[in-house]
Amino acid sequence: MANLPRVVITGVGLTSPNGNNLQEFRGNLLAGVSGVQPYNIRHVGDTVAGICDFEVTRHQKRKEARRGTRAGSISVYCAHEALEDAGLDVDKAAGTVGGRDKSRVGTYIGITEHGNVETENEVHNVSGFDYDLSFWSHHHNPRTVANNPAGEVTLNLGLTGPAYCLGGACAAGNLGLIHGMQMLQLGEVDLALAGGVSEAVHTFGIFASFASQGALGNHADPTRVSRPFDLNRNGIVVSEGGCLYTLERMDDAVARGAKIYGEVLGYHVNSDASDFVLPNAERQAECMAAALKKANLGIGDIDLVNTHATSTTAGDLQESDALRRVFGDSHDGESKVFVNNTKSFIGHTMGAAGALELAGNLPGFQDRTVHPSINVEDLDPGCAHAGLVLGEPREVTRMDTILNLSFGMLGINSAVIIGRI
């Protein structure tokens, strides 16, 4: 990261199953409030999911929302909220955003997948007409192209800069943030809207696939289905959500007197190259170590690790192994890192996970509190770590750095390090 412009986060816009802005989201994480609820989806039936309840028409007209996609609506909502949070006004008449030319604003949104929802809906629709394709929607193609969420943001806000989506499975939220930072450092844009979104709960195929793998979680209490690290965990909770950040070069942010949430200190992305689904602890550890090297930090410089752990037996164990490879087993040595998990509250928001889970921890720079992992009644010994925060928030003496982890299918791993300014 040396000799490159420093990049900072100046705005956060989000919607999650348990909060539609950072204050509400953080408050519920500290209070132990889950956003997982009963859910019924065609062909699968009764299950649970993390559902967002944001005001779609706050930033979109009803006609725009109907023509577009759920992922597009989530993206538009998060983009507006991030710009407002950063104190950046959009002036369509002048063609500016916070005084910057709209052609110099980039939109980079991580997605797990896109188009499944619309394709399933259209197939279901034409099935009622004996598969007469004349009933197929003419909106299908613009709804299903991979750049749809980012494109809907540009249409809504009148942005003319680069805008596209990054497909990175469940590491995509981190990828969006990383790419936005890189484009700022390269001088390609002067402001970036970056993060990740997911509309996963609206496609029955994702639920059915996890169920066929034996990886769709269940519990008598919906709020306890997502339980990473618990010995009796039995699978994922599928959720929707989104989080976009406004990223700026530090010099620009300081010059305009912006509030700064944190600085992107380092990152790394690598691949397991070992299995379609099963994670690889060695590669995950290498990803963390490379991010630390890029940030010029040692393990003793990291205060909090936000884990990816999804509540699957193999995934949680592999990540816990990776953490031990990097940070050791206890607080007795150089590392005194704390560890938490956000999916225990909201389930797995797929393409949004990396960005959304990071957001829930950013306020820790100010209040020096680590939100806990919940629903761990019987800690799996293979997932134990001396720094794991369970059940109740933990006040800490130092909170200067966060290592945010997100991993995905086909063996993609990502790590992002954010530092307090």
Could you walk me through the main structural features you see in this protein, from its secondary elements to its overall organization?
This protein has 421 residues and is α+β, with helices and mostly antiparallel strands. Helix content is 32%, strand content 22%. The protein has 14 helices and 17 strands. The strands form 4 sheets. A 10-stranded mixed beta sheet has the order 8-7-9-10-1-11-17-16-12-13, with helices on both faces. A 3-stranded antiparallel beta sheet has the order 4-5-6, with no helix packed on it. A two-stranded antiparallel ribbon has the order 2-3. Strand 5 (96-97) and strand 6 (100-101) form a beta hairpin.
Question: Any descriptors?
Answer:
single chain, 421 residues, alpha+beta, Peroxisomal Thiolase, Chain A, domain 1, ten-stranded mixed beta sheet, 14 helices, 22% strand
Number of helical runs? 14
Shape: globular
The count of domains is 2
Described by its quaternary structure, the protein is single chain
DSSP E strands, number: 17
CATH architecture of the largest domain: 3-Layer(aba) Sandwich
Low-confidence segments, ≥5 residues, pLDDT <50? none
Q: What's the Cα radius of gyration?
A: 20 Å
Strand content: 15-25%
CATH topology of the largest domain: Peroxisomal Thiolase, Chain A, domain 1
Helicity, as a percent range:
25-40%
Characterize the biggest β-sheet. 10 strands, mixed
Going by helix content, strand content and strand pairing, the class is alpha+beta
